[in-house]
Every structure is written in C-alpha cells, then in structure tokens.
Amino acid sequence: MKILVIGGGGREHALVWKIAQSPLVEKLYCAPGNPGTAELAENLPLQVDELDKLLEFALKNDIALTVVGPEQPLSLGIVDLFESNGLKIFGPRKNAAIIEASKAFSKDLMLKYNVPTAAYGVFTEVGPAEAFIDRTGLPIVVKADGLAAGKGVIIAQTRDEAVGAVKDMLGGNAFGSAGSRVVIEEFLVGEEASFLAITDGKHIVPLASAQDHKAVFDGDLGPNTGGMGAYSPAPVVTPEIHEIAMAEVLRPTIDGMATEGRPYCGVLYAGLMVKDGQVKTLEFNARFGDPECQPLLMRMKSDLVPVLMAVADGDLSTTVIEWHDKAAVCVVMAAEGYPGSYRKGDAIEGLEEAAQLEDVHVFHAGTALDSGRCVTNGGRVLGVTALGETVQTAILKAYQAVGAISWKGAHYRKDIGKKAIDR
C-alpha cells in the first residue's frame, strides 16, 4: 500500500523510519519531510497546513493511509476532510483534537469526568487572573490556552513573573492567538511521565511508558521547550501507576469524549505527574509526543502499520503491540539560542560517524540541505536515539553518538535518563 506521513520533524522521521520497515508498504511519502525522511520516503513540497493540496495529492496517488504527525493539521480538521473524501487517515477529528488545541477545554473535561488534575482557573482578563494567583500562591503555572508548539507554559516563581506571563499571553505578544485565553494552575510536585495510548474511541491499547525532559538545562532548569530528550521505559510508571493511569485518566477521558459527541480516535498522550503512588494529569496531546515517539518506536517490536490501519478502520479489539525488553534513550541536540530565537544554516559534522554506531539512529528534526551539506534549520535539530540492554547502556550509546556530532553553538542536556538510574 501507499502511505503518506504528514509533518517534517523528528517525530515524523521516526514514524517514516518505523513504517518503512513494514512489508505492507509499497511506497512512502512525507510532506514536507526533512533530509532524514528523504532517505526512506519521497518528500513532497507541501506544508502541514495546506489541507486541500494534501487531499488532492492523496486522491490522485491512491494513498491507502495517511498518518498525521503534528497537532496543527489535526486542529484544522484534516481528518474530517480526508474521511469525507473516502480516505483512511490516522488521527483524531477536529472536534476531538480540541483536547490539545484548547487547554481550557481539556481542564473542563477533566473536571467534569473526575480525571485527577491540578486546581485551575481560565481567564481572558488580567484582573481576575491576578486575584487567582494571589489566592493560589507560588510557584504557579501559566499556560497559553491554544497551540504553542510545546512552549506555551511558564512556571512562575514570583508574582511579578506570573502576572507578566499573563499580560504577555493575553496581550497576544508571547504566543499569538494561542494566548488570547490563559489557564492558570496550581504547581504540582512529583515526577513527570508520558503515558501514550492508541484508541479507536472505545478500545484502548497503551504504549510503553516514557519520560520527557521539558526544561532546556540540566536538572530541569530554565525555560520549557518542546522537549530536550526522552527515554523508555520510565521506572516511575510502575505496574500500579500504569493501572491507575488507565483506570483514572485514559478510560474516563476516552469515555467522556464519546459522551460529549467527540469520539477520540488516534493516539492520546497524557502528561502525568506521579507522587506518592498518586497520579495527576498535566495535559493531553492529540498525537505522538516529540521526542517520546523516537525511543518508543525504537522499542516497538510489532509492525506499526496494522495498528494504524486498525484505528483508521475503527476497530482495535484484536490489536496487541509487542515491545523489545531493551531500553531506548533520545537526546535532542538543539541550535544556539533555542528555545528563544536561534541560529540557522550551520553545517552539521559527524552524522555519518554517528550513524555507524550499533543500535543508534539519528532522527532529523530541524535540518535542511544546502549545496549537498546538512545544515541546521530549526530549534531542535536532531534526536539522537539509542537502544540498550538497560537505560544506562542506552544512555552511554546515545551520548557516544552525540559526541560524534557537532555544529556551531550546538547544545543539549547531559542528564537525559538520569532519573531512571537514580531510581
């Protein structure tokens, strides 16, 4: 069959890499893709928000399945558009993708269906927001309501910082229209985990556990990013925590979305905070996490394509996913200045050397070709991912590969996976 993957980041390179291994695939396309996906698929000069052009391509080229990577086309309704034209597509419809596109919606849903989460308020004006900040105390979390590429979250340590974040977001300066409404939450203490599951709106098939590293600097310091690295499995997700996450977070959320007339099909990502055997939900995403997708797909033993097709067909009842016992670690190498304004166009050295290392795969995220050379073209440039018998050996392999790669101003966290070892 012919498959189209939509997106051009590290998550999409990982999806293309995994899908390309399936014997069911005859031809693979990626729109717009990147230099990494170009080695496995035919890249298309189509952007993720050009829905009509993507539809036209899929119809003309007899695409059997489209797989949507990023949140933007989902929130624009690409699934509705493709389905209404008789095409199979993996991802939630627009009225279900709102679970990520509006943090206010997802918080209200959690409250209504008793999904454990932090106390919160939703605000469109500064005055009431300030009053909530004063009542709740510090530190406090300020979130842009809409899509902000994983960066619309400020953990404020002072009142001035919190009020400043609210004013920035409501003024439309910091995150554009994403911040025209803000969600303010109590600050939760504990250890974060990423819990992903595939669902057809009724049946839920959990993926392996993972942990993301959002802050830009070692020790979880500095501003939040789209993710500086991830590993799987995450020891914080014990069998007991797994059961709680399924029973108290995933099940009521999927059932609640169905009750609301918004049946959720695709992959649902729950960001969890775990403390003292209890779970609270930080956020939901309507797609594979990036960078969690990279180590998860490295560990997945099963063919991914039948799983994606089962969701598109609306029946996951017989689907089982097998996993390698090994651990996987992804270290994100970022451009100078990220997550703020960053440099582009720096030549990347050492990719071939890193690619020759055993059990290592370098996923391209923000790269481009310039006169045949691979150069930086985004904030998160590469996701260097390694498989190992233990988290410790996967970490060593990943950082060995990272050490082989360089460009001007490259930076990365040096403590990805440390929490797993500490446990």
TrEMBL record:
UniProt catalytic activity: 5-phospho-beta-D-ribosylamine + glycine + ATP = N(1)-(5-phospho-beta-D-ribosyl)glycinamide + ADP + phosphate + H(+)
Top-rank taxon: Bacteria
Pathway: Purine metabolism; IMP biosynthesis via de novo pathway; N(1)-(5-phospho-D-ribosyl)glycinamide from 5-phospho-alpha-D-ribose 1-diphosphate: step 2/2
Cofactor list: Mn(2+); Mg(2+)
EC annotation from Swiss-Prot or TrEMBL: 6.3.4.13
SUPFAM superfamilies to which the protein is assigned, alphabetical: Glutathione synthetase ATP-binding domain-like (SSF56059), PreATP-grasp domain (SSF52440), Rudiment single hybrid motif (SSF51246)
GO molecular function: phosphoribosylamine-glycine ligase activity
Protein name: Phosphoribosylamine--glycine ligase
Phylogenetic lineage: Bacteria, Pseudomonadati, Thermodesulfobacteriota, Desulfuromonadia, Geobacterales
Gene: purD
